[in-house]
Predict the structure of ADP-ribosyl cyclase/cyclic ADP-ribose hydrolase.
Amino acid sequence: MEEGESRRPEKQRRRCCVILSVAVALIVIIIVAVVLGLNGRQEESEIKSIFFSRCEKNDCKKIWGAFQQAYVNKDPCTVPVEAYDPLLAAAPFKSECGRMMFWSKTKDVVRDFAEKTCFSTLEDTLLGSVLDELTWCGKQGSEDTFTTGCPTRRDCENNPVSSFWRSASAAFADVACGNVTAMLNGSIPTPFSPASIFGSIEVKRFNATRTKSLNVVMVIQKNAVTNCTNVSLKDLQGEMDTKGIIYNCKDVTESQIQECSSQPVESCGTCW
């Protein structure tokens, strides 16, 4: 037997192994793609259900389309705030002079208070209430909406969720008018941070032609570590002075805020 003939079966076996390996790899890729597709459709179905149950408007379908347009089939780390311009145009915010409330590190207190009184926060608007506490993103090459595996602000700043809230916060502040209220946290050393959404976006958008005054409510608890004399508030006051907006600050205990919540008529006036 020739040496070449003895090696031929070995070559054939190797060729078969290569073909089999390629076939297995292709099958795995197909299975993964199918699973991801099924997961994407399932996750989209879940968030869409929540979206429409909270929306309850005649044009919710249009709003959903504008929402998806911002992030679908895009790298979830390259979604700029401008991507949500069509969504904000589809569901614009309305001015509620004297009733608009902003907050920083006091979400739970503010949410409970606003629900029972005439004050309105970003989370009380159509878009804010629909998307509050939700996570979403898209992926390049997919038309689906995903709710798992999405990047956070720690991963990248221009992720779909962070960009939406920055965009919405700016738009909400743009329509602020009359006497505006902001609840800050008296249980942390720096109640006003220029790096927060309130400090870096909302405060910057206040305009003296619409906004008469900014009334800061410093929420004081038993473990309060600061109050209206905190040095960080000097930056806030200085910015309001520069804009020509009247600045006020008052220390209010959380228990007093809760008491005001039980008296919605009084809280819409000068409860504290």
